[in-house]
Amino acid sequence: MKRIKIDKNKCMACYNCILACMMEHNEKGKDIYSLDLEDKSNECRNHIEVNHSKENIPIFCRHCDEPECVNTCMSGAMKKNPHTGYVEYDEEKCASCFMCVMSCKYGVLKIDEETKSKIVKCDMCENRETPRCVENCPTRAIYFEEV
Amino acid sequence: MKCCTSADHKLLDFVKVKGENTSFNRVLDQQIKCGFGQQGVCCRLCSNGPCRITPKSPQGVCGATADTIVGRNFLRSVASGAACYLHIVETTARNLKKTGEEKGVLKGVETLNELAKAFGVEEEDMHLKAEKVADLVLRDLYKPRFEKMELTEKIAYGPRVDKWKELGIMPGGAKSEVFDAIVKSSTNLNSDPVDMLMHSLNLGISTGLYGLTLTNLLNDVMLGEPVIRQAKVGFKVVDEDYINIMITGHQHSIIGHLQDYLISDEVKKSAQDVGAKGFKLVGCTCVGQDLQLRGEHYEEVFSGHAGNNFTSEPLISTGAIDLILSEFNCTLPGIEDLADKYQVKMICLDDVAKKKNSEYMEFSMEKRVEISKKIVEEALNNYGKRRSEIEINIPKDHGHDDVITGVSEKSLKKFLGDSYKPLLSLIASGQIKGVAAVVGCSNLTAKGHDVFTVELTRELIKRDIIVLSAGCSSGGLENVGLMSPKAADLAGDKLKEVCKSLGIPPVLNFGPCLAIGRLEIVATELARELGIDIPQLPLVLSAPQWLEEQALADGAFGLALGLPLHLAIPPFVTGSKVITKVLTEDLPSITGGQLILDDDVISTADRLEKIVMDRRMALGL
Q1: CATH number attached to the domain at A63-121
Q2: What chain A residue is nearest to B34 in terms of C-alpha separation?
Q3: What is the pLDDT of residues B303-350, one digit of tens each?
Q4: B578 to chain A, minimum CA–CA distance in Å?
Q5: B572 CB near a chain A CB, below 8 Å?
Q6: Nearest to A122 by CA among A18, A7, A37
Q7: Across chain B, how many H-helices and E-strands are there?
Q8: Containing domain of residue B329, as a range?
Q9: CB under 8 A, 24+ apart: contacts of A43-47
Q10: What is the pLDDT of residue B249?
């Protein structure tokens, strides 16, 4: 399977990856001009934090080989797809216990801001060959690689 | 080789073969865009920033919302664009004033008389008259913001002036309005998006009436009025047997003396002495369009118009250009490396367009003879140095021989029999459904160089809507043959019939972007003839491939005039709901104008056609 890899030294915190994620998951259309930057219901699945040394740290779902989020999920909402290797989230099955959030050692998973009832989770842009965040990174701080 | 797709495939093939580093391939390395920039919500006005608006951070550090940030950015862009055009009219008026003072040649006496009459100048001596007219323009430009410009009312259409007064957007001294727009949009000053939007419309008015309209008319006085004629366009106009001077910019009056000097016997002989047939000016960007428009007066020295903004780089790579004269935009920085490689001497006549490898000669009317002599000297030297070392490769199959040019508000009226009535009758009878002005620049992103412009124009003429064009859009349209009479075959049956009977193409070539001001006069004359206001006309405006801040100032003029304005790429405002709503929904009830954002050719044509049809119906047609 392919994974999104990170070279934090190249990240300029331009947030292009964040906008790309929001565009791809925007119900009103997938282009930049359809994106409402004030719409709290359209959240990005990735984020960029600043560490103690003031470095930019892009945080992306790793779709772990042994995902703790899947292991701790009691309702079966979080599943590892055996064919693609991607960790998938099923909102319908989610019991909102947020064990996955607590167990993710990379701090990727987050609870949605608006309803506080579901998980905002990377789906590898489902129908795209390359995730849109990777396509939109101008410095190649995030890249797509076979692992 | 990576390359942008172009409507002008002959040019594209040439670019690919030459393999030079041009905008056509650099555009691919710039494909990843910053979404905050595209939506206009990136603020770099203070050192707390750059701040960006996201759902998690809906305000900048200072508290500015998306509406405020977009408002400030938009006003700054329009102010910059307005400033560019106001610089052009200032230069032009100064040159006219000096021409008057020095009793120089005035080729457009009819226009001078009309201007003097409109401005209330009573003066018998033509040179004094020119001075007085120029002085009035300059005096208005230099007024403070709290004093309204006097000529605005004298040159604008009455019902529009009333509307602008009602809205409080009549411009004070134009340069001061630009100045205060910059003040207003600085950090922690104005935060009202609607106030900043209205200021943008105010800037649009002075851009349109002074920067565009008056620049044309003052140039007509000095350089001669446009005359309808056929001309050659495209790279085929370049003749390697001559010493070729490529011109780039917008200020024709700066070139005026040189074009007469180049055909003097002494200069022609100097060219022959080094083995050339003489000198030629090769038209490039809008100043080339201006020369083409007035080409009737300069047939011997003007070789023809080669192309628009992004054509200039390939033009240098033909190897046939010996010297480049720049005096304004669109003088791309990319031409610098190519000029070095092809050993082309670069001279700049106005420091606003100073390229890093050009020699700067400050132009003034007093020094014009000296400057023209120096340019000729440099061109002769460079011709001698470079021609044995540079291979020349001109795609002579690029372009057309029969482009109709020289169309202006006056020449068109003359052509129609000294009245716009025949055009109005054709519109009334439905032979021509309506009028679309497709104007502005080309960019490499809205489908590719000239692609959107050409495709939209084709679609509109198919629907019997006659297209008028001014700006780099006209450079693209003429190079693909849409401004040649044979293009009549591409029009709808009714428009085709009109074109064939009059021997005109379905796309009329008004020349440079400055001539958007001429289109405004046409619109005004049509409205006046019908006794209606401009927003009632079955007339739409599209700048599909707008590129620069200047285009935004032009657009602001269109919106202030009350015209529907289409853009394929939003002007970096969509991050603000207030501004987007005012521009796209509320404006019809404010100025009568409307911004239409659409990146699809067919749906754009559908929407523009619907507006034309609705207006026809409202007029009872």
Answers
A1: 3.30.70.20
A2: A16
A3: 999 999 999 999 999 999 999 999 999 999 999 999 999 999 999 999
A4: 13
A5: no
A6: A18
A7: 26, 16
A8: 235-386
A9: A43/A110, A43/A112, A43/A113, A43/A120, A43/B55, A44/A17, A44/A18, A44/A19, A44/A120, A45/A21, A45/A120, A45/A121, A45/A122, A45/A123, A46/A17, A46/A18, A46/A21, A46/A108, A46/A122, A46/A133, A47/A18, A47/A110
A10: 96
ipTM of the complex: 0.91
Task: List pLDDT tens digits, range B1-26.
Answer: 688 888 888 899 999 999 999 999 99
* For residue A72, pLDDT beyond 80: yes
Contact residues on chain A for B54, CB-CB shorter than 8 A = 15, 18, 37
pTM metric for this prediction: 0.96
Average pLDDT over residues B291-309: 94
CATH assignment of A1-61+127-146, among 3.30.450.40, 3.40.50.2300, 3.40.250.10, 3.30.70.20: 3.30.70.20
Assigned domain for B46 exists: no
Predicted confidence at residue B9, as pLDDT, reads: 87
* Residues of A with Cβ-Cβ distance to B35 under 8 angstroms: 15-16, 19-20, 23, 32, 35
From B33, B570, B575, residue closest to A37, measured CB to CB? B575
Positive or negative, the Cα torsion across B439, B442, B443, B448?
positive
Contact A138 B41 (CB under 8 A): no
| Contact in structure between A15 and A46 (CB atoms under 8 Å) | no
**Cβ–Cβ gap A37/B41 under 8 Å:** yes
Chain B residue numbers touching A15 (CB-CB < 8 A) = 35-36, 52, 54
Count CB pairs under 8 A between chains A and B: 48
Q: Given B32, B38, B55, which is nearest A38 (Cβ)?
A: B55
What is the reported pLDDT for A147?
A: 86
